[in-house]
Amino acid sequence: MALKNVIGIDHAVVMVKDLDKAAENYRQLGFTVSPRGTHSAHMGTGNYTIMFDPDYMELLGVLAATEQNAPARAFLDKQGEGIERIAFTAIDSAAGAEEIRARGLTPIGPTDFERPVTLPDGTVSAAKFRTFMWPTAEAPGGVRIFACQHKTRETVWIPELMQHANAARRIKQTLIATPEPAQEAAHLGRLIDRAPHAEADGAVTVPSGGDRADFVYLTLDQLGKRYPGVPLTGLSERGGAALVLVSGDLAATGKALGSAAVRSSDAICVPPAKANGTLLAFVAG
Fold it and tell me: DSSP for 69-124?
């Protein structure tokens, strides 16, 4: 039985050490970056978002050590910057948490939090969320998963933030490096009730649900073969991750990325060393 209260990928969380520097770096890569947000005190984090349709990226930094952000701090200490977790869209986080509890897993949450949002007209509102997480140990390929219920979508998906000079439109795939792709894909498949399928190069794909981005588990060597000539320095053999982004105009993408761009087969890539530990691959929409 598929989960009723959890649908496909909502956003990718990129943990960064210096939040403001990371935001400026992504601006230089042609992304429109939201104003800085500060989460509720018990979360101890701040963020910038990069909004697409129907998903987004989140640059997340730790502002104060709390129990809630202990796993994120451990990730930064062990692996450095990069994709630390992936969110699904939750229709109802409380009901979703009970769904996974019924499958024998102990959810973390639901947790409510918010952050102030300055809207384009200058007024201040709030973005409000309710999330739950799968148990910390249930992290296929070394990347944690959670579900996010947006209680105020209108303060997150702001049209002015969804237009990017690099023509990024949405996330097509989340690629996760691991020495055991089939095993890790099967793990995720059990957690979200989705069937994995093997690709020709040995990678294994797990649909996230609906029309959202897929998860792809593959070895670091397989990742390198998909994007020849792109330096993968800094990506861990287990948990190193990449995002394949749909571009509405690859010429605009190349122009916006400038010297950071590396052309590889049918993609224009940004190596992880230039994107805060995350390989970015832009492909035609």
Answer: THHHHHHHHHH-SEEEEEEEEES-HHHHHHHHHHTT---EEEEEEEEEEE-TTS-E
Q: Where are the beta strands (DSSP E) in 30-107?
A: 37-38, 45-51, 56-62, 82-90
Distance CA 65, CA 42 (A): 9
Contact 62, 76 (CB under 8 A): yes
**Backbone torsions φ then ψ of 282, nearest 5 degrees:** -95, 130
d(CA 8, CA 208): 4
Whole-angstrom distance, CA of residue 77 vs CA of residue 136 = 16
Reported as a pLDDT band with limits 50, 70 and 90, residue 1 is: low
φ and ψ of 258, to 5 deg: 60, -130
Please name which of 238, 224, 208, 209 lies closest in space to residue 271, comparing C-alpha atoms: 224
Is 220 a residue whose pLDDT tops 80?
yes
Handedness of CA 71, 73, 74, 76 (dihedral sign): positive
Phi, psi for residue 92 in degrees, rounded to 5: -145, 110
